[in-house]
Design goal:
The complex is a heterodimer of chains A (338) and B (256).
Chain A (H helix, E strand, L loop, with lengths): L1 E5 L2 E2 L2 E2 L2 H12 L1 E8 L3 H9 L4 E6 L8 H15 L3 E5 L2 H13 L4 E5 L1 E5 L2 E8 L4 E7 L4 E5 L16 E4 L10 E7 L11 E5 L17 H23 L2 E4 L1 H5 L20 E5 L5 H7 L4 E6 L12 E4 L2 H15 L3
Parallel strand pairs in A: 1-4, 1-6, 4-5, 5-12, 6-11, 7-11, 14-15, 14-16, 16-17, 17-18
Antiparallel strand pairs in A: 2-3, 8-9, 9-10
Helix pairs in contact in A: 3-4, 5-8
Chain B lengths: L1 E5 L2 E3 L6 E3 L2 E3 L5 E3 L1 H17 L2 E7 L5 H10 L3 E5 L9 H15 L4 E5 L10 H9 L3 E11 L2 E8 L2 E8 L2 E5 L11 H9 L4 E2 L1 H4 L8 E7 L9 E2 L5 H14 L4
Parallel strand pairs in B: 1-6, 1-8, 6-7, 7-13, 8-12, 9-12
Antiparallel strand pairs in B: 2-5, 3-4, 9-10, 10-11
The chains are: A alpha/beta (338), B alpha/beta (256).
Chain lengths: 338, 256
């Protein structure tokens, strides 16, 4: 099978799920990596080292900034000329919309956010979560090429082979007057992103209940709760930083203003599957559990022994967050030599 | 400003959704407007309030989906359209996008199309970009800020690294995040207006398109494997001792 992999990157830094896609493509046959951008020949080199047999490199000033229309048109044109069997995209913001647009251009369908895949005599059947993971569906695509987006961390990242090379083919960007202009960027708040994290430390409503916190005067009830939650989240962030973890939150914590929405885990937030998920003061509403239930090892600290989160947890502590969490941070600091 | 907002009716997010005898069921949980679409309706109403114009809510579904359109009307949308046809079953995203693109063309002279970021049932998030592609209009997905300046839109959108600031010529298709503020509750007057509204139903022949062919087939729907976990509760001693034990247990899993 001839598989194409879109290498998703921002200013030349690839998102790791691009390499995972190369790894999966190699289990199916030949892999061609699609590298689009300006001054991105370094990415082509890295794509070979992660296992790509060929790289189609569209290095063009017109592709310096990511624009969906320009990228999708370039990919569709190449695919129409060269007829790959399968196109893989990471399930990222860019990967998802490109997969959708390219599928329209090529008159085919998309299987999105796939977590496992079986191939049998060229026929692919994928599994993907729906209802935020409350259910799974097995899907097949009846048309060609097959277009699939892969959930980050669902497939192993291949080992890097330093110095490995392959066939580099330079291609041109699709011409055309694309209506969208990029005016700039504002950086995110930094830190580890939920989608790529090996470890996530999440806080819930319970985080605001520290009796030792006294909000400043002049706040109404809602503002005072948000203040208490923001203060409480500092211990979540501290533990996360010792573990090199991403910070997550329940919907209740986000809605109450403790942390911004980008941290929300669950059905109307992000669905995550880290190796370790530490839930602090999260009771475990069904929408939250759906968003983190496939994490490898779940640890919960909650004052309520009956909290549903303990049904998914490997280890649990029933106790006072405000004593246990700082102690846990201190213990990890010592043990990890930080 | 003529705004179309595409909405979908889905089982409530708190519903316990399971597969029984090959069919998806959610007990007696109510059907609601997809929560992400409520944000899209809110954003559309804000644009209308700022710029004037109309907001039209549209959905594909059966007669019961009118409830979700009525919700949009009660929130303040001016009119609503149901696209219903016996041929519209088990649609994949490109089939859905074809039908919506045809409906948007039939509405005519549309400036902006709003979608929620994804539906909480199928979770695909593909339809906004696919509908835009079919219409030949720009797609700005995951928009968190929209400012109209004459015939151009300036928008911010969430990407993994932060926000990308883009501009495009109208008409444009957007999918929206939660950044436009909490969706408003329908007013009493709004609910009265919605309950009396006559919602037109458009069939495929009225859209002037053949039944779209879905190419993604669902081979099987499954409940996820039951997680066999017995929680080991760490007890005894003071918080420092508990933390010490817990840290050792986590480190012994060799995943850090």
């Amino acid at each position: 099978m001839n598989t194409w992999v879109f290498i998703d990157h921002f200013k030349g830094i690839a998102l790791p799920s691009s390499w995972e896609a190369i790894g999966l493509g190699k289990t199916l046959g030949n892999v061609t990596a699609l590298v689009l951008g300006s001054g991105v020949d370094g990415l082509a080199k890295t794509a070979f080292e992660y296992g790509a047999d060929e790289v189609l490199l569209a290095d063009d000033a017109a592709l310096a900034d990511y624009r969906a229309e320009a990228f999708a048109t370039t990919i569709s044109k190449l695919a129409a000329e060269r007829s790959p069997d399968l196109l893989l995209f990471p399930t990222t913001t860019r990967g998802r919309e490109l997969a959708g647009m390219v599928a329209i251009d090529l008159k085919t369908g998309v299987m999105v956010d796939v977590t496992s895949l079986e191939a049998n005599a060229g026929r692919i059947i994928v599994t993907r979560p729906i209802y935020a993971g409350k259910l799974l569906t097995k899907e097949a695509c009846l048309s060609k090429p097959q277009v699939i987006t892969l959930r980050g961390r669902a497939f192993p990242k291949p080992a890097i082979q330093p110095g490995k090379s392959g066939t580099l083919t330079k291609v041109s960007a699709a011409g055309g007057d694309f209506p969208t202009q990029v005016e700039g960027y504002t950086a995110g708040e930094g830190g580890v992103s939920l989608a790529d994290a090996n470890v996530i430390v999440s806080g819930g409503r319970g985080i605001s209940n520290n009796p030792a916190f006294t909000p400043p005067g002049g706040l109404d009830e809602k503002q005072a709760e948000a203040w208490r939650g923001q203060e409480g989240f500092k211990m979540v962030t501290d533990l996360a930083s010792v573990l090199g973890a991403a910070v997550g939150a329940s919907r209740a914590a986000v809605d109450a203003g403790y942390v911004p929405y980008v941290h929300q885990v669950g059905q109307t937030g992000k669905v995550v599957a880290p190796d370790v998920y530490i839930a602090l003061g999260i009771s475990g509403a069904i929408q939250h559990l759906a968003g983190m239930r496939t994490s490898k090892v779940i640890i919960a600290v909650n004052k309520d022994a009956e909290a549903p989160i303990f049904k998914l947890a490997r280890y649990g502590v029933v106790g006072d967050l405000f004593q246990v969490v700082p102690a846990l941070t201190a213990a990890f600091k010592k043990k990890l030599g930080k | 400003m003529k705004i179309v907002v595409c909405v979908k009716q889905v089982p409530d997010s708190t519903a316990k959704v399971v597969v029984e005898q090959g069919k998806i069921t959610w007990g007696d949980a109510p059907l609601i407007m997809n929560p992400w679409d409520e944000y899209a309706v809110e954003a559309a109403l804000q644009q209308k309030e700022a710029l004037g114009g109309t907001v039209t809510a549209i959905t594909i579904g059966d007669e019961s989906s009118k409830e979700t359109l009525k919700r949009a009307l009660a929130m303040g949308a001016d009119d609503a359209i149901l696209v219903a046809d016996p041929a519209l079953t088990n649609m994949d995203t490109q089939a859905t996008a074809q039908v919506l693109a045809a409906a948007i063309r039939k509405i005519g002279a549309v400036d902006m199309v709003f979608f929620g970021r994804q539906a909480i049932d199928g979770d695909s998030g593909l339809v906004p970009a696919q509908a835009a592609r079919l219409l030949g209009w720009p797609a700005i997905t995951l928009a968190s800020l929209i400012k109209i300046d004459g015939n151009r839109v300036h928008a911010e959108r969430g990407v993994e690294e932060g926000r990308q600031i883009v501009s495009a010529a109208l008409p444009t298709v957007f999918s929206l995040t939660k950044d436009f503020g909490e969706p408003r509750y329908p007013s009493f007057m709004g609910i009265r207006k919605a309950s009396r509204a006559e919602i037109p139903t458009w069939s495929l022949s009225e859209l002037g398109i053949p039944a779209p062919v879905s190419v993604i087939s669902w081979v099987e729907i499954m409940n996820p494997p039951v997680r066999e976990v017995n929680c080991e509760f760490i007890t005894g001693g003071n918080p420092e001792e508990i933390a010490e034990t817990l840290a050792d247990k986590i480190l012994a899993e060799k995943v850090l």
